[in-house]
Amino acid sequence: MSSIxxxxxxxxxxNTIEQxxxxxxxxANTLNSNQTPGPNTNTRGTKAHIPDTFSGTxxxxxxxxxxQCYLYFYANPxxxxxxxxxxxxxxxxxxxxxxxxxxxxxxxxxQSIFQDWLSNWNQFVDELHRHFGLSDSVGEVANxxxxxRMKPSHxxxxxxxxxxxxxxxxxxxxxxxxxxxxxxxxxxxxxxxxTWEQGKPISFQDMYTLAITINxxxxxxxxxxHCTRQAEKEALESHSQKQGKASTSSPAMAS
Length: 255
Known about the structure:
mainly alpha, disordered N terminus
């Protein structure tokens, strides 16, 4: 297993995240420029959503926080044409322990201790990663995939999205993904796969497709069972009501 993981691809670097944000921003600008402005069209440029706050307590959210910052910077290039402007903006969206950490460094200015990250965006990002990022991104993602389990009461779509999200960040081969995917399925899907008429799938993609098929059948049958129980319940209630009416009308007829 160690030899397989040693070939794992690294998670996206900060440079990759920045480039992706830049491309998306440029694409949005291009789409806007190709549209014919209407009477109510806002022609002042692309609007980007402000970032979600980052508390520092959930390291896996740091890269997305930075991605949102980059998107906002590229959507507003004039406003964020200096590192200091970018840092000041990002710091306003830090909360909890992340905010406390940087405030502590800022307070050291009174002692004539100045931090390099105050005027250098890349160093500011390094500080965020050092104190609030994942210590081993690939290792953390691999661990999440190893421990991912689909709950019996859940639909398979949620499990598939999470599985592919983690798998896309690793360089694991088909056979490893095959076993990890099967391992995370509930018994109601594992058992039919093991006893499938055409035999158990031999590739990850076939396993993935078959699991979806079995899951759909399960929920179809569950819906049928529910409808049958509901119909039986309604029939029983209707029968009880008729008996009740018959019993109350009998004394009236006798009198």
